[in-house]
Write a structure and sequence with these properties.
The chain is built from 13 helices and 24 strands. With 491 residues, it is of the alpha+beta class. It has 4 domains: 93 residues, eRF1 domain 2 (Nucleotidyltransferase, domain 5, 2-Layer Sandwich); 88 residues, Ribosomal Protein S5, domain 2 (2-Layer Sandwich); 118 residues, Aminopeptidase (3-Layer(aba) Sandwich); 72 residues, Ribonuclease E, catalytic domain (Hypothetical Protein Ychn, Chain: A, 3-Layer(aba) Sandwich), CATH 3.40.1260. It has a 6-stranded mixed beta sheet, with helices on one face. A 5-stranded mixed beta sheet has the order 3-2-1-14-15, with helices on both faces. A 5-stranded mixed β-barrel has the order 4-5-6-8-7. Helix 2 links the parallel strand 11 and strand 12. It starts with a strand and ends with a strand.
């Protein structure tokens, strides 16, 4: 799958689009004032231990205290013990026996703050390089599961020989599959130097302090996004192109060769209509080429996707129509997960299919498309209700949560009361006030559409209410008010 990477840089924001076959597959946004924290290492102070939740709050210098669960407290495996067994054993030890209030602790962010939740932490430190991830507290040599099974043992032996028994463990990233020994050795040296700087800073700096900051988005493009299929990396800023080229030449020379400075007059994102794709990715409805469509709804607990045939009637029979729509929906949904960076639990409601071979084909196509995703996903089959459930690892906010905020009129509900419902709320409130107070007059201040209704269709009811309470009711239109907002002023 050939891909191109476009980088649009400005002092306040960096945007990266990954293009495959002329279509935007991934969008990454980093704002200078809202830079992600995943990978950052801090020395923090335990501010509170919660035995009931088996967790602790750690002050690392952010607005909200970060969160450390007992399962994320590192425990060195005993000789012959597997990592999973060590983690399970550690989780059995109560959190109050492992940390205490006021304790200084070296921690790493594994999830950015989201909504009202603080960052999630781990005491197992890892430092990511281009080919390897260094685990200074472990002696384990792991290999990415995306590397073919027959190559893993050979790679493990090579890293073990190159590491030289100097302590620490490593995980080989996917792009280390065809790496030369010299490249692996360079990465090992770089990672050991980075860890030495972190240790030195931890001894000098008081809590809470930042010890190590992960690479910025531009640098992570070279480290994480570039692969053999990448043809070009185009940057629209000369200054950032030079900085990125210098960084790449030192640490990732193969990726640096693919860098190009974009000098065109048109904005770089106009080349593949990226801004239009961003606008579409913020909407609920996703149109399919066949005439069908998806409805994507994000909630606090999960994301739901509903597949509809829409106007598609082109197949020979009803079963084929549904099958073709579901196949196209599987491809579109996998792309939308990447494009919108949707994470957590996702439930897809495909159109009910009769033949079992159709269901199996749709699942196979969905799995194939999800296999192109860099982010770890786990998918089950069709449930008894005909739903497909999957999880996608979430380490940062979705595109919608990053670029948008709840509507001030509906407060994020997506709906508002009708003008008539608001008018009847006003009638009830006037009655309530009339029982408690004795003003000369009631004045209703509300949105124009509500006032228009009270002056027209509801004027008879308003007159009857005024007669019943024995007080005049005047109306005032306020254009700045939302449809559900109103005030009743006692004069």
């Amino acid at each position: 799958m050939q891909q191109d990477i476009l980088i649009n840089w400005s002092p306040q924001e960096t945007r990266v689009a990954v293009i495959e076959h002329g279509a935007v597959q991934e969008l990454h946004v980093e704002r200078t004032l809202e830079r992600g924290l995943v990978g950052n290492v801090y020395v923090g102070k335990v501010s509170r231990v919660l035995p009931g939740m088996q967790s602790a709050f750690i002050d690392i210098g952010l607005e909200r205290a970060a969160f450390l669960h007992v399962a994320d407290v590192w425990h060195k495996p005993a000789e012959g013990e597997t990592l999973s067994a060590a983690r399970a054993a550690q989780a059995q030890i109560p959190i109050e026996r492992q940390v205490f209030e006021g304790q200084a602790l070296m921690v790493q962010v594994i999830k950015d703050p989201m909504g009202t939740k603080g960052a999630r932490l781990s005491t197992q430190i890892s430092v990511a390089g281009r080919l390897l991830v260094f685990l200074p507290q472990d002696d384990h040599i792991g290999v990415s599961q995306k590397i073919p099974l027959e190559q893993r043992e050979d790679l493990r032996k090579r890293v073990l020989a190159l590491a030289g028994g100097a302590g620490g463990g490593f995980i080989l990233r996917t792009n280390a599959e065809d790496a030369q020994d010299s490249e692996i050795a360079d990465d090992i040296a770089y990672l050991r130097k980075a860890w030495a700087r972190i240790k030195d800073a931890s001894l000098r700096l008081p809590p809470p302090s930042l010890l190590h900051q992960d690479l910025n988005l531009l640098q992570r493009v070279l480290r994480d996004l570039v692969g053999e299929s990448t043809q070009t990396i185009r940057v629209d800023s000369r200054e950032q192109f030079d900085a990125l080229h210098a960084f790449g030449a030192e640490f990732m020379p193969q990726a640096a060769k693919k860098l190009q400075h974009y000098k065109g007059e048109r904005p770089i994102f106009d080349l593949f209509s990226v801004d239009e794709e961003i606008a579409k990715a913020l909407g609920r409805r996703v149109e399919l080429k066949s005439g069908g469509y998806l409805i994507v709804d994000q909630t606090e607990a999960l994301t739901t996707v509903d597949v509809n045939t829409g106007g598609y009637v082109g197949a020979r029979n009803f079963d084929d129509t549904i099958f073709k729509t579901n196949l196209e929906a599987a491809q579109a949904l996998a792309r939308q997960l990447r494009l919108r960076n949707l994470g957590g639990i996702i439930v897809a409601d495909f159109i009910d299919m009769g033949p079992d071979e159709h269901r199996e084909a749709v699942l196979a196509e969905f799995k194939k498309q999800l296999g192109r995703d860099r982010v770890k996903t786990m998918m089950g089959g069709f449930s008894a209700l005909g739903l497909v459930e999957l999880t996608r690892k979430r380490t940062r906010e979705s595109l919608a949560h990053m670029l948008c905020e709840p509507c001030p009129s509906c407060q994020g509900k997506g709906i508002v009361k009708t003008a008539r419902s608001v008018a009847y709320d006003i009638f009830r409130e006037i009655l309530r006030e009339a029982r408690q107070f004795n003003p000369r007059e009631f004045r209703v201040v509300a949105a124009p559409q509500v006032i228009d209704l009270l002056l027209d269709e509801e004027s008879q009811h308003l007159a009857g209410l005024s007669e019943f309470i024995g007080k005049p009711v005047s109306l005032q239109s306020e254009g700045a008010m939302g449809q559900e907002q109103y005030d009743i002023v006692l004069l």
